Amino acid sequence: MPKLLDRYIFIEWLKVFVISVGVTLGILVLHDMYNNLGDLLTWGADSREILLYYGYLAPTLIPAVLPISLLLSLIYVLGSFHRNNEITAMRSAGMNVFRITRSLWFAGAVLAGLLLWLNASLIPVCKENSRTIYDNARFEQEMKNMDVSDVGKIQNMCFNNRRDGRLWFTNSFSRALNRANGVRVSVLDDRGREVSRVTAREGVYDDVDKCWFFSDGQETVYNPENHRAERSVGFDKKYYRDFTELPEIMILSMRRPKDLSLSETRRIIDALGDRSAFEVQPYLVRWYSIWASAFACIIVVAIAIPFSVAGVRTNPMVGVSKTVGLFFLYFVVDSILAAVGGRGFIPPFWAAAIPIIAMLAFALSLYRKAI
To answer: Residue 133 half-sphere exposure, CB side, CA atoms within 13 Å?
Structure first.
């Protein structure tokens, strides 16, 4: 009998959950189609490229889809049990709340584990591949209508390489040629003082030698104590073997942290080096937040069950509205702390962990009362 009851509750939830996932995922894919499908068609992407793009895009939406779908399915199923007086009958039979809902707790734990695995393995690959397909379609169209040096051009690119003590500024960067125009690189000592500066009309990353060379430039050496120029030498072309910054890392640093995958975030953190540096904090918050996001599934279960069970004694819509309100409050608090942690006011780990810990503690306190 106990196993039969668990199976019944689980199957009833699973049916609604699968439908919720399909609907929510479909809405998000349609939203992306509204924004990007027209561009892909305009750029001449064929049906295979479009299908590949959305095939890679769909898994990247799962971290947003699973908690929302879990919330909707729990509210619907537990509300249905309430309307049919099934929860009342179960509790009258001597079952406590955990006994009734243990299969739902199991489902939340499984989904949390699934999200951890997806964030670590599948989603980074899909996120990067979908972006590559989109960018390649745009680049192919640009190559037909403009000079190759303007294909994939990024304006005003900058990169602070704290690990090696170099601060980069470029007027523009061509992704097609790995070539920067209007380059200035400041070399800093361990106290952040400028000791030399390279300015050049053009800089190119050499894929063979894995370093940068500059054309029509000038190198100026400064006294770090007073920042006075001590020596300045011009050059037509010069290789800087120590300048090994990868263009792709510099490009990633121009994107918003929340748009980066787990692997891209890790590469940025490693490239920037000093984890205490101001520039690294948003990426560290993003890194920890990706891992912490999986526990949202546990939070959803912990919040939905107490309010749904309480709905047996009160208006069920009160419990539903409180559940939805607390769920979105969690995301508001998470966004605020991510912004605060990204500015270095609190450690990045705690910026990602505090919303999870606080909401889970609150939900479990409600759960204890419901039991």
So the answer is: 22
Question: What spatial distance separates the first Cα and last Cα of the chain, rounded to whole Å?
Answer: 21
Q: What does pTM read for this prediction? A: 0.80
- HEC profile for 43-74? CCCCHHHHHHHHHHHHHHCHHHHHHHHHHHHH
**How does DSSP classify residue 277?**
S
pLDDT of the chain along its 371 residues, tens only?
457 888 888 999 999 999 999 999 999 999 999 999 988 998 888 899 999 999 999 999 998 899 889 988 888 888 888 778 787 788 777 777 778 888 999 999 999 999 999 988 899 899 989 988 998 888 887 777 777 666 678 888 889 888 888 999 999 998 877 889 999 999 998 888 899 999 999 999 998 889 999 999 999 999 988 888 888 999 999 999 999 999 989 988 888 888 888 888 888 888 877 777 778 888 999 899 888 888 888 888 888 887 776 544 445 555 566 667 777 787 788 888 888 888 888 899 998 888 888 888 887 777 676 66
| Alpha-carbon span 32 to 20, nearest angstrom | 18
Inter-helix orientation angle 281-292/316-342, to 10°: 150
**Alpha carbon distance 166, 197 (integer Å):** 9
Cβ pair 121, 130 in contact under 8 A? no
Nearest to 326 by CA among 363, 295, 353: 363
Report CA 77 to chain centroid distance, whole Å: 31
